[in-house]
Design a protein that fits this description.
- It is a single chain.
- This protein is α/β, with parallel strands linked by helices.
- The protein has 2 domains: 7-36 and 135-450, Alpha-Beta Barrel (TIM Barrel); 38-134, uronate isomerase, domain 2, chain A.
- 50% of the residues lie in helices and 8% in strands.
- The chain has 21 helices and 11 strands.
- Helix 18 (346-355) links the parallel strand 10 and strand 11.
- It starts with 6 loop residues before the first helix and ends with a helix.
Length: 454
């Protein structure tokens, strides 16, 4: 990876580049570390699971099934998938994906030749040869990446079987679950009633009453905590919270399927407050990822299913949206709520002032479309003056692509060093403060925000 850093930023980067990786939020498959089986092939590792990659190729008219994505792509030849990707490598110029994948190829996999249509087969074979070796199995890579802890994102209905296997295997790697209850909170989810029935069966609970529903959720959270979870995750399009005095009445309508779309959204807004109150009780950090309109390409969703790269940012109103929640629990300094936005216009106008006031709030790092060199620079520029550094949640990579973890953390650490060097140049603080902040931003703030310890 090219380095365009002055002497001060380079020195700050050198001081943090080899710190352990704390990866407190992401979407890696725990089965990789449970079974520790060799990765199948280069395409399955680098192309098929990475929505950053296949959405760009789709934008240029390449069929997702050709890339091995979705049910219709299961028979795709992985070598051909990789060749298509390599032949269109130029499409990624200027994108963070290009930076990450270059790092993976040249730093992690030690590939010497540039990726192209002409080198595709040769590089495929070189990667495949490495993947066949024991030192490139998931656990060995986890250790070689110097990962201190990696956290997955798991449905509230998941039995966490792979996490159980990892815990009982004697391996020293920390792979922890995250409690994601959207499917049993959002009545606009088409699977909501089915999910409630599954929750009732898992917990042996009677969900016929609102009180029984809440108790089942508490029990499920307790199970995740027993398996090592330190956080919850909530993915919402519209930020809305309100306290419903008639929550049981609306819940009964939900069970009968007679509730309106608006009432379902109001109920979810109420349940976000209930989740925050449960976090006060059990200590789980609460993550709210907001502002993504999911599955906007209806034809693609109908043909291949959800999460096919068509999720898009929308405008977000954090101040009004979280008002009810914050006025109920926001002054509790022991509660941690991490806010992630896809609406950058809210950084300086809303999120930084909010985190600079409410004791429970921390601002999550640039997410999804904005975890890029320019996005990181904009983030610091817009939030630090009002929120400071200690109201930030550090960094997480939010990735499904395991090999991209070191690349993403390296890019963040370079961004941190560049930002802090700029602050020093403006005489905002000196070298010792910059070095301290660099360590905080590299890993310590994430440990603290997610309760992951040292």
């Amino acid at each position: 990876m090219e380095r365009h850093m002055n002497g001060v930023s380079e020195a700050l980067y050198q001081g943090i580049k080899d710190q352990p990786i704390v990866s407190p939020h992401g979407h890696c498959d725990p089965a990789w570390f449970s079974t520790n089986e060799k990765f199948a092939n280069p395409a399955a590792l680098l192309v098929t699971p990475d929505h950053y990659v296949f959405r760009m190729l789709h934008s240029q008219g390449i069929s997702l099934s050709e890339l091995g994505v979705g049910p219709s792509g299961c028979d795709a030849d992985p070598r051909e998938v990789f060749r298509i990707f390599a032949s269109h490598w130029h499409l990624f110029l200027g994108t963070p994906s290009r930076v990450w994948i270059n790092y993976i190829l040249h730093e992690t996999l030690e590939i010497k030749h540039p990726l192209s249509a002409e080198t595709a087969n040769m590089i495929y074979d070189q990667i495949a040869k490495k993947l066949a070796q024991d030192d490139h199995r998931p656990r060995a890579l986890f250790d070689s990446f110097n990962i201190e802890v990696l956290v997955t994102t798991d449905s509230a209905l998941d039995d966490l079987g792979h996490h159980k296997t990892i815990k009982g295997s004697g391996w020293s790697g920390r792979v922890l679950p995250t409690f994601r209850p959207d499917g049993v909170l959002d009545a606009n989810d088409p699977e909501f009633i089915k999910n409630l029935a599954e929750l009732a069966e898992i917990e042996g609970a009677d969900l016929g009453s609102y009180a029984g529903y809440l108790e089942a959720l508490r029990q499920r959270r307790a199970y995740f905590i027993a398996m090592g979870a330190t956080s919850t995750d909530h993915a919402i399009e519209v930020v809305h919270t309100e306290w419903l005095e008639n929550s049981d009445e609306i819940y009964q309508k939900l069970l009968k399927g007679t509730c309106s779309v608006d009432d379902a959204q109001r109920f979810y807004g109420h349940m976000l407050i209930e989740m925050a109150q449960m976090s006060v009780e059990d200590g789980l950090t609460m993550q709210i990822h907001a502002g993504s309109k999911r599955n906007t390409n209806v034809a693609l969703c109908d043909a291949l299913g959800r999460d096919m790269g068509a999720d898009m940012p929308v405008a977000t109103d954090w101040v009004r949206g979280l008002e009810a929640l914050l006025n109920r629990v926001g002054n509790n300094p022991d509660l941690r709520i991490l806010l992630f936005t896809l609406d950058e216009t809210t950084y300086a106008r809303e999120l930084a002032p909010m985190a600079g006031h409410w004791p429970c709030l921390r601002i999550g790092p640039p997410w999804w479309f904005y975890d890029s060199p320019a996005g990181i620079a904009r983030f610091f520029d817009q939030v630090v003056e009002t929120a400071g550094y200690y109201n930030l949640a550090g960094f997480n990579d939010d990735t499904r692509a395991f090999l991209s973890i070191p690349a993403r953390h390296d890019l963040w650490r370079r961004g941190v060093a560049t930002h802090l060097a700029g602050q020093m140049e403006k005489n905002y603080f000196g070298r010792s403060d910059a070095e301290h902040l660099a360590r905080l931003l590299a890993a310590d703030l994430a440990r603290d925000a997610y309760g992951l310890g040292h």
